[in-house]
Design goal:
With 239 residues, the protein is of the alpha/beta class. The chain has 8 helices and 6 strands; from the N terminus they run ααβαβαβααβαββα. It has a 6-stranded mixed β-sheet with strand order 3-2-1-4-6-5, with helices on both faces. Helix 4 (69-82) links the parallel strand 2 and strand 3 (87-89). Helix 2 (18-29) packs across helix 3. Bound molecules: iron/sulfur cluster. Iron/sulfur cluster (SF4) is lined by residues 64, 66, 108, 115, 118-119, 122-123, 201-202, 204-205, 230.
Amino acid sequence: MNIEDLNRLNQEFRTKSPEEALLWTLDNLHPNVGLASSFGAEDVVVIDMMMRINPEARVFTLDTGRLNQETYDVMDEIRNKYNINIEVMFPNHDEVENMVRTHGMNLFYKSIDNRKLCCGVRKVHPLNRMLETLNGWITGIRSDQTQNRAGADKFELDEQHSGILKVNPIIDWKWEQVMDYIKKNNIPYNKLHDKGYPSIGCEPCTRAIKPGEDLRAGRWWWENDPQKECGLHVAHDSR
Ligand code: SF4
């Protein structure tokens, strides 16, 4: 797909629903496309939509080895509800062993470089390994989560991953729409959302937020950069 095709696609789907964008994506790319799910609220919404369109649609996840028990719980609940084989990607064990032997188990608190190294080993490299096998990927990102995501479109060409298609069906949704969809459709969701976690990552790197705080304030809370990302949705320098 070239940039003109992409622009046409975004124009066509600008006012269409997430389900219509997913229908187009699955019709055109399945089985060479999958949802990257961290099992946050947005992702379980997209899973529900995908399963209604095509029960064979692919869902993969990155198990960093440092996730919360609540995340594993919702993973199994979703697996059982939709009878899907979640494709779990693990980090390369040699890379993890080298990293923790050199820098310690909790290296991410010591410096931003260490944190990016850990996100690279535990998240970005396994993501790259999966994306090398696909022609497109689907995400649950929303534009009001970070400034980086504010400019994202429903369809993008992912230049970080050989120009494959990246589809963000609920990019223009608000948090309230996500939770409404979950409640109306009785979808299992991560119970950390009820404990003040709007955004959920790894257990040692995520905390609940206080009223009025930025939605991503709980991620890597000890860092000051307002544009905090793990590298999955932006270029990453430890790839
Ligand atoms: S979020 Fe924390 S524990 Fe998880 S991969 Fe990144 S630095 Fe490592």
